[in-house]
Design goal:
By secondary structure, this protein is mostly helical. 73% of the residues lie in helices and 7% in strands. Helix 1 runs antiparallel to helix 4. The radius of gyration is 17 Å and the shape is elongated.
Length: 85
Amino acid sequence: MRRATVPGLVRRTIHWLLLAVTILFLITGFGISEFRVVENITLGWLTKSWALRLHDNLWIPFVVLLVLHICLPFVFKGKPKEVEL
């Protein structure tokens, strides 16, 4: 088994979630401005109205994950606890 630290797992999870939300935020923003291209690429799944709704609702998770990403190094100071994966 691989050993990992709890702060490391939390940090890695937040990094990947922030990356996913950022990519989705960019795609939906592009889907609002260039909706014909995005509709063709997504085979009609991401329409302009759907992209606008997603884009409007993604700012909360984006800001929360960004704040966690910035503040985590200050929260997890000290000796980390090890867990088995």
